[in-house]
Amino acid sequence: MLTIDVRKLNSRKEYAGDLVFGYDAPQELIDIPYVEFGGPVQVSLHFDILEDDSVEVKGTVAFVLKGKCSRCLKDAQQSFSGEVDAYFVPDGGESEDYRYTGGKIDLSDCLNDAIMLALPSRLVCGDGCVGSEWKEQ
After folding, report:
1. Which terminus of the chain is more exposed, N or C, with fewer CB under 10 A?
2. Rounded to whole angstroms, how far apart are CA atoms 58 and 115?
3. CA angle, 68 as apex, 67 and 69 as ends, to 5°?
4. Does residue 52 sit in helix, strand or coil?
5. Which pTM value belongs to this model?
6. DSSP E strand boundaries for the chain
7. DSSP assignment, residue 28?
8. Are strands 75-90 and 98-100 parallel, antiparallel or unpaired?
9. 67 lies in which domain range?
């Protein structure tokens, strides 16, 4: 469920709604060595279709990272979440917002952006491993 069909929703006179689904995010989003997603990213979104057919999408992404601790290489797993706040405009205008064509919005770019903003710079196994020099950063 990575699309919103604006034309279909407009024809049904449904101008707002909620989407909840799991999303298999690309592993390439993670640039921490020996770390991967621990399962699908959980996505919870609310959308509003505005009078000019622009669409506002807000919500959250939540995911688990698992792999090796960036400091000691022990097994580590940690949960993270991020905010989705996107504005989609129909193709045509000069705007820095997300664009869509054919009446369908592909959510993958805005979800990937939200995930990348929520990613940590490293994965650590816990307080036993985190030295005082890391706590100060």
Report:
1. C
2. 14
3. 125
4. coil
5. 0.86
6. 3-5, 16-23, 35-37, 41-49, 55-68, 75-90, 98-100, 104-106
7. G
8. parallel
9. 3-135
